[in-house]
């Protein structure tokens, strides 16, 4: 279940089968609590690995393996990061594909981010409030 403190970021990797990085802007600070990908067509040859980094540091538990066997448009994979998943307002998330597969297919990546609120219901400095 999602709350009013959750927000989503969507981005695409143009070709999952070519090793590359894609950077996505972060509008609000918080923590990445879930990553979901949707493949736009079948890949072959080998699995493709997608990792996510913040400031050059890998998000713990944020890696996704997109299996080539049985892959098709609409194949969904997900991960639930466990550490090193804090994003800062106006920062970036880097999405990295190892290019391990063949077949030039897009993959859409979604991150669910949760704004951080302390036990007093106050947002820490640098994190914008939900309602102004």
Describe what you observe in this structure:
The strands form two sheets. Strands 1, 3, 7, 8 and 10 form a five-stranded antiparallel sheet that branches. This protein has strands spanning 6-13, 20-25, 30-39, 48-54, 57-58, 64-66, 76-79, 86-87, 92-97, 107-114. Mean pLDDT is 89; it is low at 128-132. Helices cover 0% and strands 42% of the residues. It contains no helices and ten strands. Strand 4 (48-54) and strand 5 (57-58) form a beta hairpin.
Structural class assignment: mainly beta
Can you tell me the CATH topology?
Jelly Rolls
CATH H-level superfamily title: Galactose-binding domain-like
- The helix/strand series, from N terminus to C terminus, equals EEEEEEEEEE
Write out key terms for the chains shown.
132 residues; mainly beta; Jelly Rolls; five-stranded antiparallel β-sheet; 10 strands; 0% helix; elongated
